Amino acid sequence: MTVILEACDVSFGYSGGQTIVDGFSAKFHAGTTTAITGPSGRGKSTMLYLLGLMLAPRSGEVVVESKNASRAQDKERADLRARKFGFVFQDAALDSSRTVLDNVTEPALYRAQSRKELEPAARDLLARFKVDVPAHRKPGQVSGGQAQRIALCRALLGSPKILLADEPTGNLDPATAQVVIDALREHAHNGSAVIVVTHSPDVAAVCDAEVRL
């Protein structure tokens, strides 16, 4: 299987603080869903941000499609995130000042595309995941489950080769959680690498691989 993303002996700690991630190495393959598990405080979310090029490691490398991306310039890392990555954050991380539709089309801001250009695909995703609210509604006017599905639509827009999800089912009812997990697995099986930070043994059990911190 093709390795899309790789962590090579990655370590990280905030300035003046203790080491949070120490010598982490793992390979993430196209077509697979990988769970990152472990006790609270072991740096799972931090590792996800390192893999997603939102943090730079203290040492080691994050390699994206055979390129050492962790030492690239800020602009190049931002471009890689825009073109290659999708993110589902634990709390959905929607912009409360923008509409549901604008939240889904947010990736257009970083891909030199217009929001109008992505609107048809965004509406298709909202319909697929049964987000049955007017597209002009604001995130504060939707339920937690709807907000997480909106965040999933945003992450899937553009079919990213790497999709990172931080506790994507942590605050969801079982039915909504199953919708999210099924969508992540389907995205992986279409050829992407999906990496899920989770405390849930049930979520880890349906992933193709597990990396424990």
CATH architecture designation: 3-Layer(aba) Sandwich
Number of helices: 7
| N-to-C order of helices and strands | EEEHEEHEHHHEHEHE
Strand composition percent: 15-25%
Work out the number of β strands. 9
Shape: globular
Mean of residue pLDDT? Answer: 90
Q: Ranges with pLDDT <50 over ≥5 residues?
A: none
For the record, what CATH class applies? Alpha Beta
Sheet with the most strands: spatial strand order: 6-7-8-3-9
Computed CA radius of gyration, to the nearest angstrom? 17 Å
Count of discrete domains:
1
| CATH homologous superfamily annotation | P-loop containing nucleotide triphosphate hydrolases
Major β-sheet profile: 5 strands, parallel
Distance between the termini: 23 Å
Share in helix: 25-40%
Helix/strand class: alpha/beta
* CATH third-level topology: Rossmann fold
Keywords: ATP-binding, Nucleotide-binding
Domain ABC transporter: 5-213
GO molecular function: ATP binding
Family: Belongs to the ABC transporter superfamily.
